[in-house]
Amino acid sequence: MKGLNCAFRVTAVALPLEILLLLPGVSGRTFTVLNSCNFTIWPAVFTDLSVGTAVPDVATGWEAAPGSSVTFSVPDNWKSGRIWGRRDCDFDNANPGPNSCLDGGCNGGLLCDPHTGTGVPPATVAEWTLDGDGSRDFYDVSLVDGYNLPMSIANSVGCSVADCPVDLGPNCPSPLKGPFDSNNFPVGCKSACVADVDGNPQNSPNCCSGSYSTAATCPSSGVQYYSYFSDNCPDSYAYAYDESSNSALWTCNSSLAADYTLTFCP
Ligand SMILES: *[C@@H]1O[C@H](CO)[C@@H](O)[C@H](O)[C@H]1NC(C)=O
Ligand SMILES: *[C@@H]1O[C@H](CO)[C@@H](O)[C@H](O)[C@H]1NC(C)=O
């Protein structure tokens, strides 16, 4: 790799900067995270470092005022990465870490811990693996851990949009509804697994666990309230094996080097 970089730099001297910036595969991808909600949220970024060590060039968490956006570069080989939003956070209180927010909070507080800072459900999660199997980017909007904010993933090269663009809180089935903010407004809607509706998380058709741990033994028909999520957000990933819906997990040819925009409250 070192040799390659050297060779490239020698050639590069003759090329204007603008052309260099357009060369695919050189500078990674540009991601933008836009808060179109009319309230403050706290976006968070997590990379499963057991899958790959490349990480985005951005903090693992920040405060996003209404209408604000943050743009950053992401390596072409980002694997098993996720971005989500946290609601109603207060990092000054006596509860640093996961309980600083009504939902989506993480170990670490404002900055999510790089090793353990995944979000507390319920949380809508945008997921990526760039340059995965078959030289494809994989991405989705996951409701597997429930819902806490509407979001959409758009891209610069005309691949499909993944989204859950509607507020699933107000009409959420009551066993799943919540948590609630100080106005008693539901800022989340749990999945049947997260809500532990069947009381047996170790062996549950809602969680695809135990004897239900494969796609064949965990059909969507066995997941309680699946249709609430899939009917309202058909282009999201609504339970652990939702690939079969054909509108859950999206791909984009990696050679197109797509840039991605994640919009909260699109
Ligand atoms: C945000 O918009 C919603 C729906 O239009 C409205 O009910 C709510 O009062 C607004 N909130 C703020 C903080 O402006
Ligand atoms: C991706 O795009 C490249 C370049 O256009 C092409 O050679 C390749 O066949 C495409 N791969 C797929 C899976 O479509």
From TrEMBL:
It comes from the Eukaryota. The keyword Disulfide bond applies. It holds the Pfam family Thaumatin. Disulfide bonds join C37-C265, C89-C101, C106-C112, C159-C252, C164-C233, C172-C189, C193-C207, C208-C218. Keywords: Disulfide bond, Signal. Residues 1-28 form the signal peptide. This is Thaumatin-like protein.
